[in-house]
Structures are given as structure tokens and as C-alpha cells.
Amino acid sequence: MIPGYTSFQVEIKNLKFKNKNGHYYKKTAIITFQVEKRTKPLVELLGYVDEEEIYQMIDRGEPVILDQCYIARFSLDHFRSARNLDRKAQVRINGFSATGSFFDSSLPFDFSHAIFDQERFDLTSSWFHRGALNFDSARFKCGQVSFHNVIFSDYNFDFKNVVVEDAYVNFRNAVFGNGSKDFQYTEFGDGDISFANTEFSGGDVSFINADFGGGEISFKVARFGTGKVDFHYAKFKNGKISFERTEFGDGRADFRTIEFGSGRVNFNRAQFGDGEVTFEASEMDSGKFSFKRVAFGKGSISFEEAIFRGIDVSFERTDFGSGNISFYKSVFHTLSFRFCHLDDYVDLRLQECKFIDLSNTIVRDIIDLNPYEFDLKVETIRFAGMRLIGRIYIDWKQNHVKSLIKGQEGSNQRIRAEQFRILKENFSLCGQYEDEDHAYVEFKRHEARANLQESLTMSKLNGIWSYPVYWFKLTLFDKAGLYATSPIRVLATMLTVFVIFSLVYIMMITTSGADIIASVDDSLSVVARSFYHSAITFLTIGYGDHFPFRGIRWVSSLEGFAGLFLMSYFTVAFVRKVLR
What we know:
- The chain has a domain at 487-579: Orthogonal Bundle (Helix Hairpins), CATH 1.10.287.
- It is of the alpha/beta class.
- The relative contact order is 0.04.
- The strands form 8 sheets. It has a 14-stranded parallel β-sheet. The chain has a 13-stranded parallel β-sheet with strand order 11-15-18-21-24-27-29-31-33-35-38-41-44. Strands 1-4-5-7-10-14 form a 6-stranded mixed β-sheet, with no helix packed on it.
């Protein structure tokens, strides 16, 4: 057919026409096309079959062969009227082929309530200049339904309530106009369905309540226009579903309450415009769901209350645009956002998820993980490599943050330490100072273990000094005061050290020649003298009324240092709490 024409004229001649398949027609249509930027018109010769002649083929039960024809009118509604049939009476057509044909009518081309038998229904490479298409309630019992390479007009395309019995449905490379495209309640059967590289142009596209069966479904590289794309309540079974590199335009993309079945769903490299994208309350039984390298626009994105139990869902390297993102009360097996840019609010208050991967993400706004109205059943979250410019709303106790990170598989101590450090800084910015302390303690603990492991990995001999250093720091900084985050813990440690030294003095006095001597008359017992001397030594008071003798001198020196250190430790921990 002639592309880019501005107008055309048709002349019907009583001359036989032979198409490429050797089929003869009684008349010839001479179509003269006026093409922009060409002085001479282009001429196309096609066969011509008038309306009544087509109806007679149907009456005789013959295949309707209209390949390379000019078709001015075809309407089963008019056929029923002419044959005094009920308006919704089914009309059986034993094969229909109109490949490479040119359709031109101001009235709709009506195929409603037709039953297409035999091998195929074929409109491959046909051109609809004018005229809406109506297939409402048609039934295809043929092996192939082909709209391959068809160019449709700007009129409406009605394919609702159609039943396809396991045929291969092919809309590959088709070009629709700006009218609506309606596939509501269509049953596609278990055959493969291809809308690959299809141009949907403007106008709404509706697959509401469509049943796609168990065949392979492809919308790969399809392009939707500015109209709404609606798959609301659609059902898939166990076939492969591909929206790879599909362009959705700026209209709303509605995938609410879809049943994806148990196939494999692929939205990789798809592009969404600035309209809203929603998968709210959609479901999937088993398989995989992939959103890798997808580009979203300015519209909001919703997976609220989606049920993907047992499904691994990946948004790796996806650009989420500038719209809000919500996974509120949804269920997934795993959810991956690796290497994503999260520039707006993200609601990750999932109802249930085994693993959320936020590693290597760039977060510029808010990630909300705070439980609300229900408990979040999330086993592990990975924050490794995150660049946190925004905030994470998360609660140490309610979200069980410690187990979220410690339960990660394949993470070493260094990676876990880094994640606790990220959360420590986040809690500080959010004013959650108690949570900050918890995260800081875990960060220092994992950092210490990482240093020990890395030292031993370099050489086993490093254990000679690495283990003592590790246990010394563990006792002094961690056990004594939780890295200066707990003044109460430091006070308890001070009391414990004081009592230990006092008991040591009692033991030394009763078992050796060491003693605590009073410089003035004193009637204190051994126990009282030991505790009193321990107190003034620990607190570095030094009244001078009692002094150590022999071995107790060296022990007192140690206690004086311990007291000085622990009092300083307590001052740091206490001031840290007060200043915040």
C-alpha cells in the first residue's frame, strides 16, 4: 500500500483481477493516490468484490477470500438484516482472508457475533483508511488470527467479549489510530498472543477482565499513546508475559487486581510516562516478576496490597522518576531495589517479605518502614552501599532492626558494620537517639569482629596479638559502658570494679603480710578498712588517713587508674545523653 498519501480516488472497472496467489476477481479497483511532494500520482490496482457478493460466499459456506482487494463495505449487521436474522444471531464464516487489502467506509466494518471456522482469520498487511472495526462477541475457532502489519484508521477498534479457542493471535507490527481499542472480557484461550512492536497511538486501550489463558503473551516493544492503558481484573495463567521495552506514554497504566498466575512476568527496560502506574491488589501465584532498568515518569507508582507470595520481584537499576512509590500492606518473597535512584517518598510498610534489598541505592527523600496498624513481617533488609541523602523512617524495636541485618545471608562482618553505621547516622538525623545508640553499638561490635577476621585472614600468626586486643577492647569499651552510650552501665561497672578491688584487699590482708595501715588511731575492721581504702583510691580522694603496705600498694595503683578511667568514661556517657 502507498504510505504518506494525502488523498486518493477509486475507479471500479469490469476487468478481471488476479492477485498474487492466483485468485481471480471479476472487477478491478484502480486507486490513484496523491502523495505529498510528488507531482505525479501513484496508482495501485486491487481486486473488487461488492458487499452482496461477499454475503453470498457466506450463504454458500465458502471461505471469504478478499486478498488484495478494495473493500468499500462489509457488515454482518447489514447481512443479518438482509437475511431477516436476529440482530445477535451468530453467523458462521468458514475462513476469512483479506491480506494486503484496502478498507474504506464511512460505516463500521462489522464482524460482531461471527463464528470463524477453518484454518485462519487473516488481515495481514491490510490498510483501514476509514471505518471502525467491530468484533463484539465474535468467536474464533481457527488456528490463527492475524492482524499482522495491519494499519488501522483513527476509528474505534472493538474486540470485546471475543472468544478465541487456542489460536495464535497476532497483532505484531500493527498500527492503530487514535480511536479507542477495546478488548474487555475477551477470552484469548491458551494459544500465544503477540502485540510485539504494536503501535497503539492515542485513545484508551482496555483489557479489563480479559482472560489471556496459558500461552506466551508478548507486548514487547509495543508503544502506547496518551490514552489510558487498562488491564484491570485481567487474568493470566502460566505462560511467559513480556512487556520488555514497552512504552506506555503519559496515560494512566492500570494493572490493578490482575491475576498474573504462575508464569514469568517481564517489564525490563519498559518506559512509563507521567501518568499514574498502579498494580494495586494484583496477585501472582508463582514464578518471577522483573522490573529491571525500567524508567518511570512523574506519576505515582502503587503496589499497595499486592499479593506476590513466594515471588522474587526485582526493580534493579530502575529509575522511579519523581512520583510517590507505595508498597503498603503488600506481600512479596523478596524485593530488590539494587542500584536504584529513589528520589521521592517510598512507602515500604509491607505486610510480609523475607528479604528487601536496598543495597547501592541513592535515597534522596524518605523510605518509610515504620509499622502502622499492623506488624511488618520482614526477615532481612540489606542497606549495604546505600547513599542516604534523605531519611529512613524505621524503629529499632518495632522493626527488629538488629535481626534485619544480622539475618542477611552472604554478608560479612564489615558489610553489616557499614549498614549499622548508615542507620546510626539516619537515627541521629531523625532525632531517634536511643535507636542511634543501639545502631552505634552494633556498628562498633561488627567493626571489631571484622578487624579481627581480616587480621587472621592475612596471617594466622596475627592471632597472637589480635585476640588479646579484641578481648581487651570488648571488655573495656563494650561490656563496661556500651561504647559510652549507657551511663547506667558505666555506673554498674564502676560499682563492680570497686567491690572487686575491695574483696581483693580483704583477701590479701588475711592471706599475706600486706595490709592497709591507719596513720591515726582507727578501730575499723579489716572489711571496713578494705572497702574504705578502695573507695578513696577509686575516687582518687587520697585523704592520707590510710595507706597501703607491701603488695597492696601495686593493686591500689591499678585501682586508682581504673577509677580515673571509669569516672571519665561515665562523664562522657552522661554528657552525651544530656546534650542530646
